[in-house]
């Protein structure tokens, strides 16, 4: 994908909204904050990349989607009506996103990292789950979750049952990660940082942009390459912005 920025325009990146978690009331406050952020950037935005785990759980049945998030979806629809490109990536919590947003709002959905060129700068952008060394249990689970046969079996559960099971699983996953202190910085063992270094040995990117870790990170990959992690919107409200010359992380402040 290529983007040529005109003067005063920027490309924005955010991930890990986890809309729906941990409860409806808290999620709605976060949803309102995200909408205010989108309103703040919309006049400057040449494109907005939402890099996975937008929803804490999302599964598209043939004729049913999860309830809720109507204000967020309405804001995205307004942006599309204004001609602002919005690009979705799936994460490990919403990997079952299919073509609903593509058909309704002409929003492309990416399930894997993509190469992006903006004003002659090269970026590798993706959610980041399952990349790099380690995390073998999740990689095995991802094979099950992305298996078409397993997805077909899940689809036959009534949505009231299937979504309740998924929400319980999603909540237990967060509690498990907190117990294991998975959201703390792991130094040289940061697996997405290692992944970027491995990729850089084969192909150069100016910037690597990922989510998933829930940690806003700016780490050198090589002398002329940087890995950014976008953080999350449960407590940090961080996002990435590229003005055609420089990529940086910012915090949404009202």
Automatic annotation (TrEMBL):
Residues 10-215 form the Calcineurin-like phosphoesterase domain. It comes from the Bacteria. Pfam families: Metallophos (PF00149). The keyword Hydrolase applies. Keywords: Cell inner membrane, Cell membrane, Hydrolase, Manganese, Membrane, Metal-binding. One of its GO terms (molecular function) is hydrolase activity. Signal peptide: none annotated. The keyword Cell inner membrane applies. PANTHER family: UDP-2,3-DIACYLGLUCOSAMINE HYDROLASE (PTHR34990:SF1), UDP-2,3-DIACYLGLUCOSAMINE HYDROLASE-RELATED (PTHR34990). This is UDP-2,3-diacylglucosamine hydrolase. It comes from Echinicola rosea.
């Amino acid at each position: 994908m290529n983007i040529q920025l005109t003067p005063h325009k920027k490309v924005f990146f955010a991930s890990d909204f986890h809309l729906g978690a941990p409860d409806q009331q808290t999620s709605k406050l976060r949803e309102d904050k995200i909408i205010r952020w989108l309103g703040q950037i919309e006049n400057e935005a040449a494109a907005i990349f939402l890099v996975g785990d937008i929803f804490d759980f999302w599964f598209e049945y043939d004729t049913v989607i999860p309830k809720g998030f109507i204000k967020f979806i309405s804001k995205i629809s307004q942006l599309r009506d204004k001609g602002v490109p919005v690009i979705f990536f799936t994460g490990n919590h919403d990997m079952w996103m299919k073509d609903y947003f593509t058909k309704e709002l002409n929003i492309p959905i990416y399930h894997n990292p993509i190469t992006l060129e903006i004003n002659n700068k090269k970026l590798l952008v993706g959610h980041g789950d399952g990349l790099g060394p380690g995390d073998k249990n999740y990689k095995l689970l991802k094979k099950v979750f992305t298996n078409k046969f397993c997805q077909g079996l899940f689809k036959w559960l009534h949505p009231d049952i299937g979504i309740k099971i998924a929400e319980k699983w999603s909540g237990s996953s967060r509690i498990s990660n907190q117990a294991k202190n998975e959201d703390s910085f792991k130094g040289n063992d940061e697996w997405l940082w290692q992944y970027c270094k491995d990729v850089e040995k084969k192909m150069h990117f100016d910037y690597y942009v990922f989510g998933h870790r829930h940690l806003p990170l700016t780490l050198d990959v090589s002398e002329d390459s940087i890995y950014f992690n976008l953080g999350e919107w449960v407590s940090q409200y961080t996002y990435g912005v590229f003005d055609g010359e420089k990529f940086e992380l910012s915090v949404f402040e009202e």
